[in-house]
Amino acid sequence: MDKSILNDIKKLLGLSETCTDFDTDIILHINTVFMILEQLGVSNKKFSIKGTENVWSEYLSEDDDLEAIKTYIHLKVRLVFDPPLNSAIIESIKQTINELEWRLNVQVDTERKEE
Questions:
Q1: Domain range for residue 67?
Q2: The model's pTM
Q3: 21-43 pLDDT, tens digit each
């Protein structure tokens, strides 16, 4: 079953699907990350979500080996929406984001060479 992008990110942020108080903020941040992924060259399509009706298969196909995008989006949104108070945790998240950007680029480059 294909899952809602918004609901998955909300769950990772510790929010219930039924809590809609922050949906507008979270959607804004998710869409910003989709723009960043396009600029990084990970995706070659413009994409944005409007609400819970948008699912991962709209962005990722079954052929894509880019599951790390979900983690990347979560971490980028977390730093903007609900940053940790501990600077060591913030630095750890930033390092993970940097590694994911590198790995996603390598994965996309490898897939493009195989085509």
A1: 5-114
A2: 0.91
A3: 999 999 999 999 999 999 998 88
